[in-house]
Amino acid sequence: MLVDYFVLSAPAGQREDYNAHIQRNGVLERCDRSLIDAVAEVALTGRGGAHFPVARKWQPVLQAISTAARLTVVVNAAEGEPSSRKDAEIMRRNPHLVLDGAVALSQSLVTGTYAAADIVVWLHEGDDISLSSIQRAIDERAGLDEPPMRVLLTPARYVSGESTSVIRAVQSERRTGKATAFPRFTVDPGRPWLQDDADGNPILVHNCETMARIGQIARVGALAYRATSLVTVTAPGGLRVLEVGPDTTFATLLASLGVVTPSAVLLGGYGGQWVEWLRIADLAVDPDALRTHGLSLGAGIIIPLAPEECGLQKTAEIAAWMAGQSAKACGPCTFGLPAVAELMTKISKKAKARDLRELHEVCGLIPGRGACRHPDGTVRMVTSALEVFAEDLDQHTHSRCLAHPRKHRR
Amino acid sequence: MTDSMTVMTNVMLRIDPQACDGIGMCAHLAPDLITLDRWGYPIIPTRVLDVEEVSQATKAVKGCPKKALHLIANK
């Protein structure tokens, strides 16, 4: 089935208010730890892009919560990339599903302890439609016996959505009363989703879609879970958000949106990887299916390379954008990404062996050396382009281009 | 100075990349362990240190003007 739904129950363009939400989805019962088992049973993975098993993220929280005073559950709805819109779509259409997830999660994790919970929704400044939708939703639930909820706004940058940024901002808000996007607290890179603050109180961050799925699992149980995927496709008319069933192939998906068969797609967005169309066309748009082929759906971003576009040039443009989005907090990202972008731009015009060698060398210097995954994603995207567009790269060494065969490049 | 007297085993170096300014002191103090990349930022071993490497690593940790380098227990 092409279009299916588990998350986006509200029709396109409509917002489900609390009453409509209850009528369609039913009241959320108070949750206990059986939710953890249900989420583990359906093997839910994080939809912010990393696809880490959600239930496994909760184990250290369960340990910490026994001695902690407070658990902060954060909904990460700061969608940093221009080619992603699925989280905004959920926030606009089904804000209550997202809050249900946060409430259910808080209730199940703090069961049987004296700890309190609070809920934070993390959103970009200027995302006014999402802000008004979620703020109204919080107001609509004012009378319910639920943890306190509030919205925190962050400057609209790509890296603001990194869970490390989110955690630091929540920590700084607790300490100083003001949320700064990039305060200086070191987050353990081994478990960036959880950081005990000075009081030992855990902060748990989940992507907006992940949270909505947790809300639905809390309501319907593991047996009725539907392994759909939310995707944002860059289509001829603009971005299109669809929720598709697990048997939908990439070929079916793109055909349904009127996208001309591309030579390659950028899977997972600007920090994802280029994949040859022939490799991916008949694969299912499903994180588990893709994983068995060594691919990741990331945050569900699918960018087909248009026929008139040169993959190398597009890669250079994206690399330059990513370099500009660096928080410039860590050296290898501050200096490395502009170097990558500059070399990629040169190569997209004329691929000299010396520049290519240097690009490979610089790409080897960056991954794993920043405080967040921004630089790593950029390098992954660029190195995948060098492989997938190898044939075009060869053309570019002769100042030619497969996308513009007749145009003489100098 | 009890910590320098205790032999530390099963430890690793870790950089706080946001605190590091690429001053390069660590590479002078621990030349066998740390090299600098083309921008002057340290590249550290990502493995557990040998016992005989720990004293040099400790010098680099103590000498970092930005307190950006740490010895951490391998979990």
Give an overview in words:
Chain A: Residues 316-396 form the NADH-ubiquinone oxidoreductase 51kDa subunit iron-sulphur binding domain. Chain A: Pfam families: Complex1_51K, NADH_4Fe-4S. Chain A: Belongs to the complex I 51 kDa subunit family. Chain A: Keywords: 4Fe-4S, Flavoprotein, FMN, Iron, Iron-sulfur, Metal-binding. Chain A: Residues 39-214 form the NADH-ubiquinone oxidoreductase 51kDa subunit FMN-binding domain. The complex is a heterodimer of chains A (410) and B (75). Chain A is of the alpha/beta class. Chain A has 3 domains: 18-220, NADH-ubiquinone oxidoreductase 51kDa subunit (Rossmann fold); 229-304, Ubiquitin-like (UB roll), CATH 3.10.20.600; 315-397, NADH-ubiquinone oxidoreductase 51kDa subunit, iron-sulphur binding domain (de novo design (two linked rop proteins), Up-down Bundle). Chain A is built from 16 helices and 9 strands. Chain A has a 5-stranded mixed β-sheet with strand order 6-5-9-7-8. In chain A, strand 2 (116-124), helix 6 (128-140) and strand 3 form a beta-alpha-beta unit. In chain A, helix 2 packs antiparallel against helix 3 and helix 4 crosses helix 5. The longest helix of chain A is centred in the last third of the chain and has 19 residues, at 331-349. The termini of chain A are far apart. Residues 181-193 of chain A have low confidence and may be disordered. With 75 residues, chain B is α+β, with helices and mostly antiparallel strands. Chain B has one domain (2-73): Alpha-Beta Plaits (2-Layer Sandwich). In chain B, 25% of the residues lie in helices and 19% in strands. Chain B is built from 3 helices and 4 strands, in the order H-E-H-E-E-H-E. Chain B has helices spanning 2-5, 25-29, 54-63, and strands at residues 11-15, 35-36, 42-43, 69-73. The longest helix of chain B has 10 residues, at 54-63. The radius of gyration of chain B is 12 Å and the shape is globular. The relative contact order of chain B is 0.33. The model of chain B has no long low-confidence stretch (mean pLDDT 89). The chains are: A alpha/beta (410), B alpha+beta (75). At the A-B interface, helix 13 of A face loops of B.
